[in-house]
Task: structure prediction
Amino acid sequence: MGNKKNKRKRLVLFFAACLLLSGLAYLVFQVALGTDVGKKMLAWTGKEDIGIKRGLDIAGGLYVLLEAKETGDEKVDADVIERTMAVIRNRVDELGVAEPVIAPQGRNRIRIELPDIDDPEKAREIIGSTARLSFVDPNGEEVITGANLRRVQMMRDPEEPDPFISLELDKEGTKRFAEATGEFYGQKIFIVLDEQIISDPVVNAVITDGQARITGHEEPAELALLLRSGSLPVELVELESQLVGPTLGRRTMDVSVYAAAVGLAIVVLYMISFYRFAGFISGVALLFYLTLVLGALTLLPTTLTLPGIAGLILSIGMAVDANVLIFERIKEELKNGRTVHRAIENGFQQAFRTILDSNVTTIIATVVLFALASGPVRGFAVTLFIGIVCSMLTAVTLTRALMRLAFRAGLVRSSRFVGVKAA
Amino acid sequence: MINFVRHRKIPYALSVLLILGGIVSLLISGMNLGIDFAGGTVLHLNLADDFTPAEVEALAGGIPELKGAVVQTVKGRDLQGRLTEGVVIKSAYIEEGRRNAVLAAFRERWPSLGPDDLRVESVGGIISGELTRQALIALAVAVAGMIAYITFRFEFRFALAAIIALLHDIFIIVAVFSIFQIEANVPFIAALLTIFGYSVNDTIVIFDRIRENIKRKKKDEYAAMVDRSINQNLVRTINTSMTTLLVLAALLVGFYYFIGSFDLIAFVIALLIGVVVGTYSSVFIAAPLWLDLGRVQSRRLRRRPA
Result:
C-alpha cells in the first residue's frame, strides 16, 4: 500500500518537473528573444542589460574593418592605432551608439562594430571622413594637426558670460604651439578643416603648457564637435564593411524564430510517434536543451549571427541524436529479454560511450575553428560548441533522471514505452 | 538484415563518379565565389513595389561604378504574407567614397528607399584572400586533431576511414556548389564546419558499434560483423538524419518563402546536401572502407617474409 502512495507522489513529481522545465523554458525564451515579456522581467530583476548580443546581420548596423596606411612621417604603431581609435570613438560617441565596438585587430587594423543604429549610412560617413584638421599660422605654415589634440572640451568660466573651448595638446603639439604663439603673438591662427577655415582666433597669450583656450566663438558647441572629431593621425583604408538596415535583419530574425518553433514541433512529434512515451521525455529534454543553449548564449559574451541561428535550429534536429542512441539501446536490451528497469539502466550506460566519442570529434572541430578563424566563423564555432556540450549534458542527465522517475512512478511498465511492441 | 558489405562496390562506384564529376566541374567552371572570397560590393535594396528588373538594370548600367554588375530580383514576404520585392546588385569593389553616390542615384528614382531597408556589403581583395587561407588551415588542423583522437580512442584504421569519408562528404558539397554554380560565401564555410561535425559524428557511432562487436566476433567473420554493426544502428541513423532533415526543411521553406535571400538559401542547401551525403557515407563508405583497409593491411603483412 505504501508503495502505491509513493508511486502517486512520484507521478506528481514527474509532471511537476515537466511543468517546471516548460515554465523555465518559457521564461528563458522570452528573455533571450528580447520580447516585451522578457524585457519586463529583466526590468523587474533590475538586470536590463542581459540579452543575447545580436550580430549586425540581425540587429542592423555597421561593421567596418580599417587598415592604417603609413604616410611619410607617421609610422603605424600601437600608439598611432590607439590615437586613431580615440578619434573614431569621439566621432561615434556623437552618434549615441549604445554598444560600440572599436578594437584593434592585428598590428595595423581597427575593427568597428556599431549595432542597432538607425542610419548606418550616416555612421559610415562620419567614421570614414578623412577630414584633415590643422592649425595654420599667418604665413600659411602648418603648426599642428588634429592628431596633436589630446582633448577638446567646451567649458564655462563662472566669471565670464560666454562658454569657451579648452584644448589640451600632446607633447609635440605643445612644443610647436609654444613656438608659434610666441612668434605670432597678437596675430591670427587659422583653424582649417578640409581647406575651410572654421575659426580664426587671435593669439593673446604665449601658450607653453599645452593648455589653450578659444574664447568668443559664436557657436562654441559646434566648433568643439568639429575639433573633437578632427583629423585621424593616419590614413585609413577600408578592407571590409557591412552595412545592414535594421528592417532587413529584423525580418530574418523573426522568420528564423518561426522556423525554429516549427522545427521543434516537427521533431517532437516525430520522436513521440516513433518512441511513444520515451519520445515525450526526449521532447521535454529538447526543450530544456534549448533553454540551456539560449541561457548560455545570453550569459556568455558571444554574438549571434544568422548562420549561428541557422546552426542552432539545425542543432534541434541533431540534439535528439543522443536520445535516439539511448532509446535504441534500450530497445535492444528489451529484445534481449532484459526487464524494463535493467534495460533502461543498461541502455544509458552503453549509449554513453558512443555519445561521448561521437561528440568529442565534433568538439575538436569547433575548438580548432575558434582558435584559427576570425569574425563570423569564429562566432559560429562558439554557438556550435555550446550546442554540442548542452545536448550531451541534457541527454545523459535530464533524460536519464526523467526516465528513472517515470519508471518509479509506474508510468513505464511494459516495453511499449519506447515503441517496442509487447512480445 | 541488409547486406551492405557484399554490395559495397555500387556505392564505391557512385562516389567515385560523383567525385570525378566534381573534379571536372571544378576544372571547367570552378566555384561561384561570392564577395566574401572574391571581393566586391553587394547592394541589397528593398525598393518600393514599382520597379521592373529591366528598369533597375538600365539604371545600374548608367552608373560607372556598377559596370558589369549583376542584378537579381529578391522576392520575400513580411510576416503578414505581403509580398516584398527588392534587388540585389553584385559588382566589383566600390570605393567607400563612391558608394553614397551610387545609392543617391537609386534614391533619385525611388525616394522611399530609406536607410533602414538596405544592405551594403563590401569586401576588399586583402580580406578575401586571408579568409580562404584561414579556412584551409583550419580544415587541415581540424582533420589532424580528429585523426589523433580517433586513433587514440579506436585505432588508426578507423581514423583513416572516417577522415576519407569526411573529405568525401566535404568534396561532394563543394562539387554540387560548383556544378550548379551556387554562390559560396562565409555561411558556406559555416555549413561545411557543421557537416564536418555531423559526418564524423555519424561515422563514429557506427565505428563504436564495430569496436564493440570486434570483441564478440568469432573467427573470420569480419564482413558479417560489419554488416551486423551497420544494421544494428540503422534505425538510429535514419531517425537522426530524419529529424535533422525535417528541421532543415522548415528552415529552407522559411528562408525561401519569407526572405528570398540567396545567401541563406545556399547555406541551408549546403547543410541539406551535407546531412544526406554524411549519412550515406557513414553507412555505405566509411564502414565498408574500414573493412577493405584492413584487408589491404593484412595482405601486406602476409606478403612480408617471416
Q: What stands out?
A: Chain A touches chain B through 77 residues (CB under 8 Å).
